[in-house]
Amino acid sequence: MGHKNKEGGNKNKTATGGEAINKATGGKKKKSTGDASSSSSLPAPSVIFNPKDVTDPFELLDMSIAALHDKRASASPRESALSSLAATLERVLPLDESTDARPLVVFALCGASIKKGNTTSPTSGKEARLAFRAVGLLALTLLNGGSTEILAESFPMLAKTLQFAPAMEAATVIAALDCLAAVTFAGALGPEEAERSLKAIWSVIFPNPKFPNAVSTKVTPQVLATAVSTWTFLVTTASLTDAAQRKSERAAWTATVASLASLLDAADDRAVRMVAGEAMAVCVELNLTQHASRKDMEAVVARVSDLAAEAGGKGADKTLFVEQKVMFRQILAFMERGERAPTVAVRTTSSEKKEMIKASTWAKIAQLNFLRRFLGGGFLAHVKGNKMFKETFDVGADEKAALSIAKRKLNVKLKQKQKVMKMNRELSWAVKNVYCLPQGAQPPESNKPDQLLKLGWH
């Protein structure tokens, strides 16, 4: 169980696409020379990854897994495989982790790729960044609660990556932030898990608890902007209003508002100021500022007014100058006069129908901004075909309806489904594990699917 050779695994042609390794290597078998010792000493050929002519997404998924599983492959083929894997997951594959082992295998292999880039090196490679993206997309794709397991197993490594953000390449930290936001939204079952991720993200922006208003100077503006954007996205989905009303949480949220205000003052980058302004508008809209003092909120309004009227002097940097003024004028109108957020419309088709997704609250605009940035070319496929987004972002949906983690809290039915899912995985693991993970002499416990989740991440 889990220690079969590749030929033995490929004899079991299952729904998991076990023929991928044969296809990737041309399906040829070596002729026996009759000398077992000499033939066994020869190195096996590396998997050739050539997805150019593959059109079936499941076949491409299998080819990507086979290429990632090849320990002899250099970084370039693994990067190509991860890139193809992410592109495949952008298509919203109907992956049912209760009957299909591939999601577990993908998750484990991505963890191994991330560890290659997140070890002792001060910078991380493209392989780790692609793996972070693939994990985030995988979490948003699974059908039956597997994202909860992904969050549980990936959070320690994601949090550690963010902890060492100043020493890492900016692009890797950005990928980790996006991944954490995606797996938290997909896998969290309540505000508590979301708050854990929010704290990890917040530490990238304000790393020193002794100086809560001191913005990090050791990460790039791009990292700061992404951190604020992902933090805001999770705040909008986590239903934290009740938590902010509890006496034990009032001081913390008052301090959070003060920190966001300091970001409006301290940030020299307009992109950072704009996402901080959006975050502040979301906090006001969700009533998370209810316990902030009048003096503090008046100071926030004054700063927003200044940014809305910023003058572009001669020789001044004009990057995002107009966009910043327009946005802060809208935020000022909302905070001073209670005017609604501007309606944002995104076209979903190139046909003459001109179908649009609309958002008219700051919370939903923040969600839309994050999802468009993270999903990239897969945005329309997910809002049309992913059940997580379809109700909220489909054409004709309520402009004010926003995504919510609270709607997916565990109920009795889901608990039963997860229990059955785990039993199904364990009963059919020997048949489904056609990719022979893990390789080599491993302890018997590694044959269990729950152990596979930990192979690449611990």
From TrEMBL:
Positions with biased composition (Basic and acidic residues): 1-10
InterPro entries, A to Z: IFRD, Interferon-rel_develop_reg_N
Annotated spans, Disordered: 1-48
The organism's place on the tree of life at top rank: Eukaryota
Compositionally biased intervals (Low complexity): 11-25
Domain Interferon-related developmental regulator N-terminal: start-end pairs: 56-336
Coiled coil spans: none
Official protein name in the record: Interferon-related developmental regulator N-terminal domain-containing protein
